[in-house]
Inverse folding.
């Protein structure tokens, strides 16, 4: 095990190029629904047990199924209401299991990126060839079913290897959602090619808020608004990114939807907000700021890092 | 309780063989054959009696948590915590059967609701025959809820033991209530692969374990289909207070938000079921009963509510399929 994978450089907030989003927007806002399939009886991975209780562990399994049968459609309706397109973190096997969901998202011009094949198949202990197989499976199947070339990646169940970022860049993926280092996009150091991290958020993730912090729904709405308010305020100086990562099985329970609706209404009622997808944010950053960031990193390293 | 564990395990050089990259169930629908993949939004709209929009299904759990609960496979929410004898948690749960239940019952009566489903551990009926008499006099529905909170179904318990546990719980309740049991809720919603087959073999028609839908659906077993009913899990009082550690006002807000959401969904789709799950050991505390009263009174003020027990709701749904 290593102390640090050295995936990114240190460039403090006060040494960054000034970011401005399209039309002078101060904040880029994106919503990333995780549309997932969890197997009821997956094969075992040496480093992670899929279910807490003896299989079939029907409470969490059926909880997740609710997201696809019931929740997705409710969540999508709220997003439609406020004109927010999703950037889908997709369990790629769901293309086969639940094509109705895929079609509905295609109709809305949502972005699809990969979240592994199943959320019960973990990257731990994979060889580079094996991890590449997952990435290639994702590229091939998402393209086959949606016509889209995936631009982003969120490792399945947030399980990584030391090489994950290198392999994504090698296959021409544009961005990762796996690093929680920043409120702005940032270059990721990879063996070949260019690669960036864009802010996803564990803190605003419905699962973390509901299941780890155990907040009630109306408090989640308050947290989302507070997160937005401060990122917009800080965006005066240099553009920020706000992401709401979602899971229909959590956010779209009947007792929680009003809170999500309330937060989305608030956020989309503001000026100076660019409502975008992950790929749009990544491409804009590559086109306009990537090189400038690399120079700023070099300058800072020359001056401060020995 | 709700999410898989995140463990920190040491990599001892294990590798994944090629089976890890084979996906035997990667095809249309579910990865098991218990039920069909079906979208709630595409189902035939259901109409409840008097064209009410919401079927209100009030559930009470009457449970017995033995002092000698085994740690395996896990302890039900509310189970013993300290070294034996954990009188502290044992008595806190038994409070529900002595005091809490009557507070809950009064709250339901004062909101004007008459139809309730009571899930009984058979051992509660055995220890406190008066409770069964009380429930029977009210004409409330009784459903099976296992022997007690330490007799869980799970993979690892052999078939014969599980079959005996379930069958004896059902037979006991049928014998002393002199009624055929129609419904079942596994303690802690824990099942083995066989549980639905065993329940169905005992003549049960509907069960409450799976939480993947907001309306009933057909669930295959080797002994005919069961109906899976949308029992309330996330905003049950036990989950709210004991698991999430939410405040009383949060219990009220979530129940009301759920009700209002379902009601507005009926404008575009058919009737919905508002299920509320009450554990007298949780809601029946003096400082919490008002939260339950507020919620029940809120439902009572709506003109869109049809209050019925689980079996009645299931039958109305079934007739329209």
């Amino acid at each position: 095990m290593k102390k640090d994978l050295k995936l990114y450089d240190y460039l403090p907030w006060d040494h960054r190029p000034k970011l401005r989003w399209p039309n002078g927007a101060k904040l880029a806002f994106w919503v990333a629904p995780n549309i997932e399939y969890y197997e009821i009886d997956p094969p075992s991975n040496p480093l992670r047990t899929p279910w807490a209780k003896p299989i079939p562990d029907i409470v969490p399994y059926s909880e997740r199924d609710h997201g696809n049968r019931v929740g997705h459609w409710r969540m999508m309706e709220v997003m439609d209401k406020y004109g927010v397109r999703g950037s889908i973190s997709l369990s790629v096997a769901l293309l086969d299991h639940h094509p109705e969901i895929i079609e509905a998202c295609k109709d809305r011009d949502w972005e699809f990126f990969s979240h592994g094949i199943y959320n019960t198949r973990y990257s731990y202990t994979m060889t580079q060839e094996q991890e590449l197989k997952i990435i290639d499976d994702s590229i091939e199947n998402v393209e086959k079913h949606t016509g889209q070339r995936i631009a982003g990646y969120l490792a399945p169940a947030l399980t990584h290897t030391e090489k994950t970022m290198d392999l994504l860049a090698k296959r021409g993926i544009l961005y990762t959602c796996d690093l929680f280092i920043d409120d702005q996009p940032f270059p990721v150091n990879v063996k070949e090619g260019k690669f960036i991290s864009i802010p996803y958020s564990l803190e605003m993730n419905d699962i973390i808020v509901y299941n780890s912090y155990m907040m009630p729904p109306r408090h989640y709405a308050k947290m989302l608004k507070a997160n937005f308010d401060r990122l917009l305020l800080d965006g005066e100086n240099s553009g920020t990114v706000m992401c709401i990562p979602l899971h229909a099985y959590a956010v779209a329970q009947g007792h929680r939807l009003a809170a999500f609706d309330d937060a989305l209404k608030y956020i989309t009622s503001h000026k100076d907000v660019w409502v975008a997808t992950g790929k749009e944010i990544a491409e804009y950053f590559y086109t306009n700021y990537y090189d400038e960031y690399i120079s700023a990193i070099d300058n800072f390293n020359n001056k401060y890092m020995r | 309780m709700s999410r898989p564990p995140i463990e920190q395990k040491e990599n001892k050089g294990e590798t994944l063989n090629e089976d890890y990259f084979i996906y035997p169930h990667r095809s249309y629908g579910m990865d098991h054959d218990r039920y069909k993949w079906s979208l709630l939004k595409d189902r035939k709209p259901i109409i409840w009696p008097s064209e009410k929009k919401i079927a209100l299904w009030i559930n009470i759990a009457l449970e017995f948590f033995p002092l000698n609960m085994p740690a395996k496979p896990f302890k039900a929410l509310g189970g013993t915590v300290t070294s034996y004898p954990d009188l502290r948690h044992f008595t806190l749960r038994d409070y529900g059967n002595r005091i809490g239940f009557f507070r809950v019952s009064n709250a339901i009566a004062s909101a004007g609701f008459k139809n309730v489903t009571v899930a009984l551990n058979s051992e509660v009926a055995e220890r406190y025959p008066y409770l069964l008499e009380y429930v029977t006099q009210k004409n409330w529905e009784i459903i099976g809820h296992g022997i007690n909170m330490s007799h869980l179904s799970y993979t690892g318990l052999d078939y014969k033991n599980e079959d005996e546990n379930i069958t004896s719980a059902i037979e006991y309740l049928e014998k002393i209530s002199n009624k055929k049991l129609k419904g079942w809720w596994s303690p802690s919603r824990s099942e083995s692969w066989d549980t639905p087959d065993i329940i169905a073999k005992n003549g049960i028609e509907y069960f409450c374990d799976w939480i993947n839908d907001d309306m009933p659906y057909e669930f295959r077993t080797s002994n005919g289909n069961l109906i899976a009913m949308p029992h309330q899990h996330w905003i049950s009082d036990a989950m709210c207070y004991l698991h999430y550690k939410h405040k009383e006002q949060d219990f009220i807000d979530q129940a009301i938000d759920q009700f209002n959401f379902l009601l507005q969904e009926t404008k575009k789709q058919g009737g919905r079921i508002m299920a509320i799950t009450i554990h007298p050991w949780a809601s029946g505390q003096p400082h919490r009963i008002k939260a339950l009263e507020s919620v029940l009174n809120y439902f009572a003020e709506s003109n869109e509510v049809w209050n019925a027990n689980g079996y009645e709701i299931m039958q109305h749904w079934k007739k329209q399929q």
Observations:
- The mean pLDDT of chain B is 96.
- Chain B touches chain A through 64 residues (CB under 8 Å).
- Chain B has one domain: 50-319.
- The longest strand of chain B covers residues 54-62.
